[in-house]
């Protein structure tokens, strides 16, 4: 419920990055808690707090924000297909993690969350370098930002020249 108001105030990209980084730190704290559990009994509390923080950070960023971004990155025509692909990827990954977690946990032991931390680091870096802020921007502004990243300034001028000559 709070996310609806928070996303308009803080922005999609910043919340997404904060959520990913919080989940990364929580996953590392879970790993430390599990590794040191046999030496310090109070590490079980560290693990529990880390789990709660992981869920909170998920609900702040990677849970809801991709749905905002997908809806804002695509124009009206391809938007339903993009949301369907995003939903399929979301549920497919949830299914894979749910089905494989126990086997991976048996294989990795207390270091199982290092895999999640590594993936979260990759996701954070991708989002930091590739995902634009979409707060308060129209689809046309977002598409123009992607075109500027894809084509350098000189290529954009040449592209505009080509468009101008086609219209003439």
Automatic annotation (TrEMBL):
<dbReference type="InterPro" id="IPR020846">
    <property type="entry name" value="MFS_dom"/>
</dbReference>
<feature type="domain" description="Major facilitator superfamily (MFS) profile">
    <location>
        <begin position="1"/>
        <end position="135"/>
    </location>
</feature>
<dbReference type="GO" id="GO:0070837">
    <property type="term" value="P:dehydroascorbic acid transport"/>
</dbReference>
<dbReference type="GO" id="GO:0005886">
    <property type="term" value="C:plasma membrane"/>
</dbReference>
<keyword id="KW-0472">Membrane</keyword>
<dbReference type="GO" id="GO:0005903">
    <property type="term" value="C:brush border"/>
</dbReference>
<feature type="transmembrane region" description="Helical">
    <location>
        <begin position="42"/>
        <end position="60"/>
    </location>
</feature>
<dbReference type="InterPro" id="IPR045263">
    <property type="entry name" value="GLUT"/>
</dbReference>
<dbReference type="GO" id="GO:0055056">
    <property type="term" value="F:D-glucose transmembrane transporter activity"/>
</dbReference>
<feature type="transmembrane region" description="Helical">
    <location>
        <begin position="15"/>
        <end position="36"/>
    </location>
</feature>
<dbReference type="GO" id="GO:0046323">
    <property type="term" value="P:D-glucose import"/>
</dbReference>
<keyword id="KW-1133">Transmembrane helix</keyword>
<protein>
    <submittedName>
        <fullName>GTR2 protein</fullName>
    </submittedName>
</protein>
<feature type="transmembrane region" description="Helical">
    <location>
        <begin position="111"/>
        <end position="129"/>
    </location>
</feature>
<dbReference type="InterPro" id="IPR005828">
    <property type="entry name" value="MFS_sugar_transport-like"/>
</dbReference>
<feature type="transmembrane region" description="Helical">
    <location>
        <begin position="81"/>
        <end position="105"/>
    </location>
</feature>
<dbReference type="Pfam" id="PF00083">
    <property type="entry name" value="Sugar_tr"/>
</dbReference>
<dbReference type="InterPro" id="IPR036259">
    <property type="entry name" value="MFS_trans_sf"/>
</dbReference>
<dbReference type="InterPro" id="IPR003663">
    <property type="entry name" value="Sugar/inositol_transpt"/>
</dbReference>
<keyword id="KW-0812">Transmembrane</keyword>
């Amino acid at each position: 419920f709070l996310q609806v108001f928070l996303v308009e105030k803080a922005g999609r990209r910043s919340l997404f990055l904060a959520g990913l980084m919080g989940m990364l730190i929580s996953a590392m704290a879970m790993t430390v808690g599990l590794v040191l559990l046999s030496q310090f009994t109070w590490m079980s509390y560290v693990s529990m707090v880390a789990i709660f923080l992981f869920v909170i950070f998920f609900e702040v960023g990677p849970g809801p924000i991709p749905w905002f971004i997908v809806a804002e990155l695509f124009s009206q025509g391809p938007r339903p297909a993009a949301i369907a692909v995003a939903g399929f990827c979301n549920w497919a990954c949830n299914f894979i993690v749910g089905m494989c977690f126990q086997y991976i946990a048996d294989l990795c032991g207390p270091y199982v969350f290092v895999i999640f931390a590594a993936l979260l680091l990759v996701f954070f870096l991708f989002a930091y370098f590739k995902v634009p802020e979409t707060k308060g921007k129209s689809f046309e502004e977002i598409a123009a930002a992607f075109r500027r990243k894809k084509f350098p300034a000189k290529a954009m001028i040449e592209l505009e020249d080509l468009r101008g000559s086609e219209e003439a």
